[in-house]
Specification:
Oligomer: single chain
CATH architecture: Alpha-Beta Barrel
Helix content: 40-55%
Strand order of the largest sheet: 1-2-3-4-5-6-7-8
CATH class: Alpha Beta
Number of strands: 8
């Protein structure tokens, strides 16, 4: 099971104090353990692309991270630059405040702009479930699906709470069978990862990937 589980994992390092050497180590671990992707801040995309060259591991960059409150133009530029530098996936943060205030058009325009800027590459949308009530989670999932993004993702790992089985189940019920779901935030054991997958997750975002597959 460990080898199969590894292909669900986005091996993640988003701490502000992460160094270039830390990113290189992350990439080497991702290659060694056959993780699906590394998930990193955009300034390290070039480093990761170089380290992962010739391997099946891809680069995922976070956009508008971790608050989601930067302007739409800024998010779109950030996504386009990351893709142009070699990122094959981008994980963007939804504008939580706009969502909670009911400014639905702003949210959908924000999401769609990043999808366009990603030029056909995979976009995952972090809805920060710990800040939303049930109806807001449902609305967010529907907007993500409408925007053309490929995944809805639970959490940044920097907000309150993280991925829960109940949230992943709700997300799957809302988006249907085809959209990807990434469970991220607090997934630190193989048991927890498997539970998320059973609940409907198709990707796991974690900084504990090596520990998970060694269980």
């Amino acid at each position: 099971m460990s080898v199969r589980l590894a292909r669900y994992i986005d091996h993640t390092l988003l701490k502000p104090e992460a160094t270039g050497e830390d990113i290189i180590k992350l990439c080497k671990e991702a290659i060694e353990h056959s993780f699906y992707a590394v998930c990193i801040n955009p300034s390290y995309v070039d480093t990761a692309v170089k380290e992962l060259q010739g391997s099946p591991v891809i680069v995922c960059a976070v956009i508008g991270f971790p608050l989601g409150a930067t302007s739409t133009a800024t998010k779109a530029f950030e996504a386009a630059e990351a893709v142009d530098s070699g990122a094959e996936e981008v994980d963007m943060v939804i504008h939580v405040g706009a969502l909670k205030s009911g400014n639905i058009q702003y949210v959908i325009d924000d999401l769609a702009a990043v999808v366009r800027a990603a030029k056909g590459n995979t976009v995952k949308v972090i809805i920060e479930t710990g800040l939303l009530d049930k109806e807001e989670k449902i609305t967010a999932c529907r907007l993500v699906k409408e925007s053309g993004a490929a995944f809805v993702k639970t959490s940044t790992g920097f907000g309150p709470g993280g991925a829960t089985i109940a949230d992943v189940q709700l997300m799957r019920e809302t988006v249907g069978p085809d959209l990807g779901i990434k469970a991220s935030g607090g997934v630190r054991t193989a048991k927890a990862a498997r539970q998320m997958i059973e609940a409907g997750a198709t990707r796991i975002g974690t900084s504990s990937g090596v520990a998970i597959i060694k269980e």
